[in-house]
């Protein structure tokens, strides 16, 4: 017979529940960076600065000039299921990047977290600290305005997860990728990433969301060559809108890691979207070649469910066929047009 490993049934403690939940939200430094930077975006920041030491294991610091929090808010912010964003408890109209109220509590459960904030116009700032799920009282703190979050010793409270950390270099690169995706979606916000000694990524603000501003931001991240080899996409069907820039087939890559896809401003890794892109390019590219592109799909909030995945990287659409059709036809149309232009240029 199998040995009995189970003990008596009992409810888990709040701290243990939080640690378990944290594992889904914060998988590695890059996921903490994603959550913190999304919070800064939701707070209306115009600049967001990220510092990562030792690949984020030593320190993750995210500073913004957003709306800030007062003493009561800062104390609630680190509690689980505390959010200022979910106006609609039916989970239909989700306009913000966050809504689950899980991120700060999760990070606080597995690391040493400090939140320092001062709302616009307030004459004092506040700080709250959480260590491995243990919250210290709110204290007054000097701060110029906005919010600064510091995460130290990520996963020190969950040694099992700590073992899965890759090298500092790999974690730093992953976090940089997350930041780049968010920077693509928000060209009006200035971003920097630094390793504590030097700034390794800088995206200056480029103003409004007009096509050119977006292309400027994409060029700042993907390079001038992308800028010179991309065609603009702008198509609409039944209330769904697809915009962005798609690389010419001649500017393809050997892997599919250069496809940046967004749904309602949210970076996603979605099979349906990736499949539609592949379908659109299949007549233009060899099987082992992949396009470089950044596509932004905007749909009415009742058309998409973003509450599928703890990290919100996957979404579900009400009508997958409509989404696929829009992407395939918009890309094909643009590629065909580009083909004509290219041959005219050669001929002329
Ligand atoms: P969510 O983003 O899902 O609401 P979080 O745990 O990420 O949950 O954040 C909890 C709350 O803390 C937010 O709803 C917001 O009110 C506040 N908050 C977090 N980060 C910031 C920030 N950078 N600026 C202002 N408020 C913030
Ligand atoms: Mg959040």
TrEMBL record:
Coiled coil: none annotated. Keywords: DNA damage, DNA repair, Endonuclease, Hydrolase, Nuclease. It comes from the Bacteria. Residues 218-336 form the DNA mismatch repair protein S5 domain. The keyword DNA damage applies. The keyword S-adenosyl-L-methionine does not apply. GO terms for molecular function: endonuclease activity. Belongs to the DNA mismatch repair MutL/HexB family. This protein is involved in the repair of mismatches in DNA. It is required for dam-dependent methyl-directed DNA mismatch repair. May act as a 'molecular matchmaker', a protein that promotes the formation of a stable complex between two or more DNA-binding proteins in an ATP-dependent manner without itself being part of a final effector complex. This is DNA mismatch repair protein MutL. The lineage of its organism: Bacteria, Pseudomonadati, Pseudomonadota, Alphaproteobacteria, Kordiimonadales. The gene is mutL.
């Amino acid at each position: 017979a199998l040995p009995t490993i189970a003990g008596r049934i009992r409810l888990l403690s709040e701290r243990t529940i939080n640690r378990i939940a944290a594992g889904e939200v914060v998988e590695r430094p890059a996921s903490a960076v994603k959550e913190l930077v999304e919070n800064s975006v939701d707070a209306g920041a115009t600049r967001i600065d990220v510092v990562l030491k030792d690949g984020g294991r030593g320190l993750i610091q995210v500073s913004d000039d957003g709306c800030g929090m007062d003493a009561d808010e800062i104390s609630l912010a680190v509690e689980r299921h505390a959010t200022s964003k979910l106006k609609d408890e039916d989970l239909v109209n989700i306009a913000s990047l966050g809504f689950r109220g899980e991120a700060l509590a999760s990070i606080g459960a597995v690391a040493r977290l400090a939140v320092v904030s001062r709302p616009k116009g307030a004459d004092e700032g506040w700080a709250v600290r959480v260590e491995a799920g243990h919250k210290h009282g709110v204290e007054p703190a000097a701060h110029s305005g906005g919010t600064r979050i510091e995460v130290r010793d990520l996963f020190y409270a969950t040694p099992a997860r700590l073992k899965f950390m890759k090298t500092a270099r790999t974690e730093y690169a992953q976090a940089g990728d997350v930041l780049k995706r968010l920077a693509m979606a928000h060209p009006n916000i200035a971003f920097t990433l630094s390793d504590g000694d030097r700034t390794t990524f800088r995206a200056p603000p480029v103003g409004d969301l007009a096509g050119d501003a977006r292309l400027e931001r994409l060029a700042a991240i993907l390079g001038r060559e992308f800028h010179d080899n991309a065609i603009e996409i702008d198509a609409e069907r039944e209330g769904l809108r697809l915009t962005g820039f798609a690389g010419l087939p001649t500017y393809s890559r050997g892997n599919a890691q250069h496809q940046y896809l967004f749904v309602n401003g949210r970076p996603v890794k979605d099979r349906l979207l990736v499949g539609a892109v592949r379908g659109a390019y299949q007549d233009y590219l060899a099987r082992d070649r992949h396009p470089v592109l950044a596509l932004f799909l905007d749909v009415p909030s009742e058309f998409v469910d973003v509450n599928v995945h703890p990290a919100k990287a996957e979404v579900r659409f009400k009508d997958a066929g409509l989404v696929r059709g829009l992407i395939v036809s918009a890309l094909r149309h643009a590629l065909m047009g580009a083909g004509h232009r290219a041959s005219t240029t050669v001929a002329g």
